[in-house]
Amino acid sequence: MANYGALAAHLRTMGTLTFRMEFSEVEAITGKLPPSARTVRQWWENDADKLQAREGWLAAGYEASSVSITRQSVEFVRATAHL
User: Fold this and answer.
1) Taking 60 as the threshold, does the pLDDT of residue 83 lie above it?
2) Per-chain mean pLDDT for the chain
3) Beta carbons within 10 angstroms of residue 55's beta carbon
4) Which pairs from 46-52 meet CB under 8 Å and 24+ separation?
5) Which residues lie across from 75 on neighbouring strands?
6) 62: which residues sit within 8 A by CB, 6+ positions away?
7) Cα gap 62→23, rounded to integer Å
């Protein structure tokens, strides 16, 4: 099971408003992601009801803004409320 709190901790150290991560880079921080993270774009939705979003990027003040299943990457953008 992935540790989404570790992702939040990592994102909090980022000094940029936007940046892209490969899914493999996310896994290097969190541990193995579920297969749906690599095949279902909706897995990356900014929905606080989803554990990965709530404890991961949303907890760090970021939103997933662009997800590419083809390139296996996600772009995070600092949420407006956290500027």
Assistant:
1) no
2) 94
3) 19
4) 51/4, 52/2, 52/4
5) 20, 66
6) 11, 14, 76, 77, 78, 79, 82
7) 16
